[in-house]
Specification:
alpha/beta
């Protein structure tokens, strides 16, 4: 039973070695419409979970083989916080990781639980999903177990942010016709400004989904992300727009960056050449600055 996959190169997190805590079956308390795994009834546990010893043995073997790994990523065919020995596993991984960083990819369904919060504070990076800020959208898109409350998830994120000193990333995955409405992103912006994550990743479907749903284009992702003003947002898409902004003045660039920092990738794909040149001049004049969050460079006003 292989519990390890990769290493996988990631623009957002570097070269990552994955740990699958549910290798035999999909085990998730959500049944998201966009999931790349087969549809499955939500569950509240991982059946026949591997032991901590099994996981650590395979991680050690992989680290000896793949010396360039930058990140060890805890995930699952489903939700990794359902793993019953998560706290012990994180402790053991911290003993062997050396200079590598520990990351978890979670749907945030248990982030309100004190023990889960305590466990996740031991990680270098925590990435939590928040696709919707309204209950109707949440139930329609993420299809959780009945006892899971969006209000508790949001409250849990706010509590966790106060405890956690590492890099907190919130991911929003946009599905056409469901959470691609401006009012939904306005609500998300209000929630996220309370949580104050270090980064917000906004993406859409780029793999065959479990159900018959569709992605939105890059331009729509960018339009929606404007509602997340004041937050460091990255747009994660394999289908980039081109020259969405043309011939921007320096004043227009400063106004744009004041509302939302842009990544180098945003600028490369959305700005035409004259606009890119003016941005560089503003940078040289110290009117804008470059900050790095994780592995992502952002440009913002000084």
């Amino acid at each position: 039973m292989s519990l390890i996959f990769g290493p996988v190169p990631s623009r957002r997190f570097g070269l990552s070695l994955g740990i699958d805590l549910s290798p035999e079956h999909k085990a998730c308390n959500f049944d998201c419409l966009y999931c790349e795994l087969e549809p499955a009834k939500p569950v509240d546990h991982i059946p026949n979970p591997p032991s901590v010893k099994q996981v650590i043995t395979q991680v050690q073997e992989a680290l000896e083989r793949f010396l360039d790994v930058e990140m060890i990523t805890i995930t699952a065919n489903g939700e990794p916080t359902l793993y019953p020995h998560l706290d012990e596993l994180i402790d053991e991984l911290n003993k062997i990781k050396k200079s590598k960083k520990l990351l978890i990819l979670s749907n945030a369904s248990r982030i309100h639980e004190p023990q889960i919060q305590k466990s996740l504070t031991k990680l270098d990076i925590v990435k939590l999903s928040l696709d919707c800020a309204t209950p109707r959208c949440f139930k329609r898109l993420d299809r959780p177990l009945k006892n899971i409350s969006l209000e508790k998830i949001i409250q849990g994120m706010e509590q966790f942010r106060k405890l956690y000193k590492g890099l907190l990333v919130i991911e929003i995955l946009v599905v056409k016709g469901i959470n691609d409405k401006q009012e939904e992103f306005t609500a998300l912006g209000q929630v996220l400004r309370r949580i104050q994550p270090d980064r917000v990743d906004v993406g859409t479907i780029d793999r065959p989904p479990a159900y018959n749903v569709e992605p939105v284009n890059y331009e729509r992702l960018f339009e929606l992300s404007s509602e997340l003003h004041g937050l460091p947002v990255t747009i994660v898409s394999r289908h980039f727009g081109q020259n969405y902004f043309t011939n921007l003045s320096k004043e227009e660039i400063l106004d744009l960056l004041a509302h939302r920092p842009l990544t180098q990738e945003d600028i490369t794909h959305l700005f035409d050449k004259p606009s890119q040149q003016r941005l560089q001049e503003l940078f040289q004049d110290n009117k804008i600055e470059k900050i790095t969050v994780g592995t992502i460079d952002f440009f913002k006003t000084t």
